């Protein structure tokens, strides 16, 4: 058993850590305050090859292993969690396309993803369907030359920025096997985007997207009619481990700051870190985050080794965001009134982290997957 990163992975961690310290952490509060990413952010992320990491070399990417994606996201999230969603989507959708689209479609779409020219959104959730995503109601009707999309997607992270979306629509009967995935340009006529006003990740541009008779070509279908839901669910076994590491990265930053604060802040003439009432909760949260980090990296390592990683990825996704929110909350309390102020990153990180408990599936959704595997399919819907 080997718990060490490779020299290349260590070098990647160092590079992204330095980029994060210089270009992400100092600018995160402003993005949160204005509710917008700064101009040129996606180009900066692309220059760090963050979008290319998850794209195969044959299509202009770096073809990095999954553990490397996890490392990059953990480091980036320590400075600002919200832009991580763009890297996450590129990795998740890159994997879905690489595994299911034709080589011709991959040649058409993936080089622009790797270069950061295409910003991707995953358009699955609808106003009436989130956890029960196999019930989506958006319709795709066959036209002479392709398909026409009708319906509403909501909670689409990056919906305000994305150039393309993978849109899930019903082409067949009820249930998972009736859902098809369409690679859709989001500037197509008939699409209206309405930004949502959120507790956290305020610059992320989470939006509602209405599709009113949006025409897409026959070659927009990924994998084939009726395969979309299965494709995305397999992809979630990857992205759930990645989002877990985003949560760990952001919460660990707050915990480090809380530990530093506990060393110097004095009450009753002594540093608060000398009181076990302060130190022990921080120790417990450091332990919980460490465990979350291990199971997330185990999932990615198993994926890279070609092993089944569904259990570990879903364990990571329900556990890590919860552990991260609890740790970030404790960090805020350790800072006292200073933590409550938006002058420090502590409060923003807590707000942003709560979003990771919902995005890519709630703890309810992921524990359902685990219950099916541990108890048997007949014991969970
Ligand atoms: C920050 C953020 C980013 C997001 N990004 C995207 C995105 O890019 N694309 C996209 O399509 N969606 C996105 N979402 C939406 C997200 O995937 C959904 O919010 C999530 O799947 C839950 O669906 P819902 O909100 O409709 O809740 P519901 O499905 O209505 O569930 C409500 C509550 O009931 C629980 N619940 C439901 N059924 C069960 C059950 N059988 N057993 C136990 N508990 C259950 C859920 O866990 C939840 O707590 C994002 C959400 C957030 C907050």
The gist of it:
This protein has helices at residues 7-34, 41-47, 66-79, 84-100, 103-114, 228-264, 276-304, 310-334, 337-340, 346-356, 363-375; strands at residues 120-123, 139-142, 146-156, 164-170, 179-185, 191-195, 207-217, 221-222, 266-267, 270-271. It has 381 residues and is of the alpha+beta class.
Characteristics:
single chain, 381 residues, alpha+beta, Butyryl-Coa Dehydrogenase, subunit A, domain 1, Butyryl-CoA Dehydrogenase, subunit A, domain 2, Butyryl-CoA Dehydrogenase, subunit A, domain 3, 3 domains, 4-stranded mixed beta sheet, 4-stranded antiparallel beta sheet, 52% helix, binds flavin-adenine dinucleotide
Write up what this structure looks like:
52% of the residues lie in helices and 14% in strands. The chain has 381 residues and is α+β, with helices and mostly antiparallel strands. It has three domains: 7-118, Butyryl-Coa Dehydrogenase, subunit A, domain 1 (Orthogonal Bundle), CATH 1.10.540; 121-226, Butyryl-CoA Dehydrogenase, subunit A, domain 2 (Beta Barrel), CATH 2.40.110.10; 229-379, Butyryl-CoA Dehydrogenase, subunit A, domain 3 (Up-down Bundle). It has a four-stranded mixed β-sheet. Strands 2-3-7-6 form a four-stranded antiparallel β-sheet, with no helix packed on it. Helix 1 runs parallel beside helix 3 (66-79), helix 3 packs across helix 6 (228-264) and helix 6 (228-264) runs antiparallel to helix 10. The longest helix is centred in the middle third of the chain and has 37 residues, at 228-264. The protein binds flavin-adenine dinucleotide.
């Amino acid at each position: 058993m080997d718990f060490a990163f490779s020299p290349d992975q260590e070098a990647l961690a160092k590079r992204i850590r330095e980029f994060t310290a210089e270009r992400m952490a100092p600018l995160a509060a402003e993005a949160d305050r204005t509710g917008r990413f700064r101009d040129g952010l996606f180009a900066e992320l692309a220059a760090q090859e963050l979008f290319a990491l998850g794209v195969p070399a044959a299509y202009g990417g770096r073809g990095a292993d999954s553990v490397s994606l996890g490392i990059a996201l953990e480091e980036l999230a320590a400075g600002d969690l919200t832009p991580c969603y763009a890297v996450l989507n590129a990795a998740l959708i890159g994997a879905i396309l690489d595994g299911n689209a034709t080589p011709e479609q991959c040649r058409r779409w993936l080089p622009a993803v790797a270069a950061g020219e295409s910003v991707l959104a995953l358009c699955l959730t609808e106003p009436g369907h989130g956890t029960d995503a196999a019930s989506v109601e958006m319709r795709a009707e066959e036209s002479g030359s392709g398909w026409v999309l009708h319906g509403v997607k909501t909670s689409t992270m990056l919906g305000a920025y994305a150039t393309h979306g993978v849109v899930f629509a019903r082409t067949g009967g009820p249930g998972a096997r009736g859902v098809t995935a369409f690679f859709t340009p989001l500037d197509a006529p008939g699409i209206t985007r309405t930004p949502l006003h959120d507790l956290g990740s305020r610059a992320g541009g989470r939006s509602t997207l209405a599709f009113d008779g949006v025409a897409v070509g026959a070659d927009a279908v990924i994998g084939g009619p009726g395969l979309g839901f299965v494709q995305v669910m397999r992809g979630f076994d990857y992205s759930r481990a990645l989002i877990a590491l985003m949560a760990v990265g952001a919460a660990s930053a707050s915990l480090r700051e809380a530990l530093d604060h506990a060393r110097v802040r004095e009450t009753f003439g002594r540093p608060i870190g000398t009181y076990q009432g302060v130190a022990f909760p921080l120790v417990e949260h450091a332990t919980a985050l460490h465990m979350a980090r291990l199971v997330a990296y185990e999932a990615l390592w198993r994926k890279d080794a070609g092993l089944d990683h569904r259990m570990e990825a879903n364990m990571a996704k329900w556990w890590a965001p919860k552990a991260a929110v609890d740790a970030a909350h404790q960090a805020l309390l350790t800072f006292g009134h200073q933590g409550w102020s938006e002058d420090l990153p502590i409060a923003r990180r807590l707000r942003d982290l709560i979003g990771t408990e919902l995005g890519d599936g709630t703890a309810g959704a992921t524990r359902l997957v685990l219950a099916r595997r541990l108890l048997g399919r007949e014991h969970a819907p």
